[in-house]
Amino acid sequence: MIEENNYMVNDLAAKGKQEFYPGPVLTCVQHGNDFRFTCANGVQLSLHVITDKILRFRYATEVGFAADFSYAVPVDSVRQDPEFLEFREKPDHYRITTDRLICTIAKETLYVRVLDRSGNVLTADEKGFHWEHDDDTGNDIVKMSKQVQSGVHYYGLGDKPDNMNLRGKRFTNWGTDTYGYTKGSDPLYKNIPFYLELQQKIAHGIFFDNTFKASFDFAAERADVTSFWAQGGEMNYYFIYGPSLLEVTEEYTRLTCPPELPPMWALGYHQCKWSYFPESNFKAIAQGFRDRKIPCDALYLDIDYMDGYRCFTWSPTHFPDPKKMVRELAADGFKTVVIIDPGIKIDPAYSVYTEGLANDYFCHRADGPLMRGSVWPGLCNFPDFTRPAVREWWAGLFKGLIGEDGVKGVWNDMNEPAVFERGTFPDDVRFDYDGHSASHKKAHNIYGMQMARATAEGVKRFSYPDRPFTITRSTYAGGQRYSSGWTGDNIASWEHLWLANIQCQRLSISGFSFIGSDVGGFIDTPDGELYSRWMALAAFHPFFRTHSSGDHGEQEPWSFGEATTAIARRFIELRYRLLPYMYTTFWQYVSKGTPMLRPLTFLDQTDTETYLRMAEFGLGDHLLVCPITQAGADGRWMYLPKGDWYYYWTDEPKAGGAEVWASAPLDRIPLFVQAGAVLPMYPLMQYVGEKKVEELTLHVYFKNGTQASVVYDDGGEGYGYEQGQRTIRRFTVTGTDQGLTLSQEIEGDYQPSFTTYQVVLHGLPFPLTAVMADGGAVEVTAIAAEAGVALPGVVIGVAFEKLTLS
């Protein structure tokens, strides 16, 4: 009898591990853009046609659909009904057709195939949807496997520190404080379950909107199968059609919503260290920038500015009069940014703790006790940021720092969430989850995002009418709405310089463009060469900050000798001159979802030479950058996309579609400008707003043909742009062997501070004999160029319509 019982138990255990599949489809019901398929065993598929290019698939097992709720996709995000929608039932399948896609659902298996209107198979189920019941948690482990199409390549997935092309790799999303990570480390801080697939030069994306621990296999276990699965929740994913890679990221970013425009100063240079204190040291760092004429807009305070690491407090010893200090720094152009972690010190004399306790704002364990864990202040409780009342309370706590003390930005750290003794919270910690009660298994991956959300609400409230600035270490899909980010605790090594390049590109194409790395490395100390090369790369990343651990020496731009100081100054100055270009690129990201950093494949997916390359990337529409990531190098071979280019430092023209050698001693980075580009530049400033910009320089690069450029301007601060106080200047360059025309169209009534353009002409193949602006002659002058040679230039009014050169 005992043996029989054991057999029965073992048999049940074996059955508990089996995989389950949908049965044959019994019915399909259409309600507008929604289609509900019901199988014989109770499995259901809800297929929602969001646009002509986006299909959403939700699967339910026999228990039915849970409430439809997502932190990634706001309910009020812009939707565009399909222009064309047709539904037909065939003998063995159902067919749904939009203007761009054909989707078939097999009656026998519920298998999905999606094709373009030319009949190319974009994705096809292998096992399709299947699941396994987890008796320990009561969750279904939901799984999806798809066929690997021929010649496929995979990109995206957030901050994964690996080769740009993900084929042959497996990854997990479970936000983790990975101090000193290396190439291949997984998981890391961010959880962005979105990837792009390129096959036969056609692109689409998959966004798996599931916050449980999720895994992705890109033909690693089986070369003909790619799959993704999660330890609970729904099989809920979006198919996003391109057909270009750039369009896929744009569609995904609009679906999850891009951020607001930041204040322009946030695109300047930032300096940070763990930690600058006391006040005299912090102010000395500020003085060090101004004395050396190194531009800088933001200085950061790490945890040592607090009183015993208690958030929202100041150390009375280190910073006795913070309001006065912040005001004095602001008078010299510095914005103060402070760190805020999620752990609230358990201390009955600490008002933030007692408020949280009295209002029951902290996370509980399953049986009722508060979640306790050790971080920097010692034992802490942790706010439940998934509860609206807690986010409102947290936002209000910034009144002192932002509204009264004048702090300009907030930096969220340790919000994976990280706990010293065990890594993160136990699985049984409970969360409100905006009314959809959940355990830590479901809420872990969105904790950092919801903390950043609450922080952003508070900083915006008390910064108004100025724009807010926040930065976060951990996030989930859609977290770009609330914060900028950085790539975490990296190392002062050449490998990490290489990783910084890859990770920032990958995050950008994953919807999170406002990203950078700790310049020079957080852990250990770089030498002057490594710091110079890192500074050169980071000058072209949207978020530009040096940050280091105090354990490893100084890491200010002047810490490595005069030669390195001069190089750092050179690249920071270049960044400040390029601010109108960077700001325009950010506006394209905000308005269209266009990634600011664009891997080589995104620049030309028809060219198979770009598929496996990863060093080169585009910044905005017209710049191509390729960092030096090896010690002792004085240049590198790199691939130029098809078209005509100019080497920025020398104006040497280069034809694309080929490898070229880019000479780059330590004070240069391989940097190319697209022919036909109009590259806007500001006069040099030590900080944003230091001086009135009276003239905007336009660098015009000759092209035999036509090229469009755009410059966006709204003053870089405040919310007037939402009421139309902005200007979009569209330029068109048209060149021939005998002449060049630069035309301008202006949209919007915002009047900038500058009244003239200085137009600098690059690469003219003909002798310049006449220049006419709107029919009137213009005097030509010589302008000193980067290469040390004089280039022809003219000064004209900003309202011109056509400039003609012959």
From TrEMBL:
Gene Ontology MF annotations: hydrolase activity
Source organism, top-level taxon: Bacteria
CDD domains linked: GH31_glucosidase_II_MalA (cd06604), GH31_N (cd14752)
Organism: Hymenobacter fastidiosus
Organismal lineage: Bacteria, Pseudomonadati, Bacteroidota, Cytophagia, Cytophagales
Domain spans labelled Glycoside hydrolase family 31 N-terminal: 45-217
Domain annotation Glycosyl hydrolase family 31 C-terminal: ranges: 593-679
Record Pfam families: DUF5110 (PF17137), Gal_mutarotas_2 (PF13802), Glyco_hydro_31_2nd (PF01055), Glyco_hydro_31_3rd (PF21365)
Annotated protein name in UniProt: Glycoside hydrolase family 31 protein
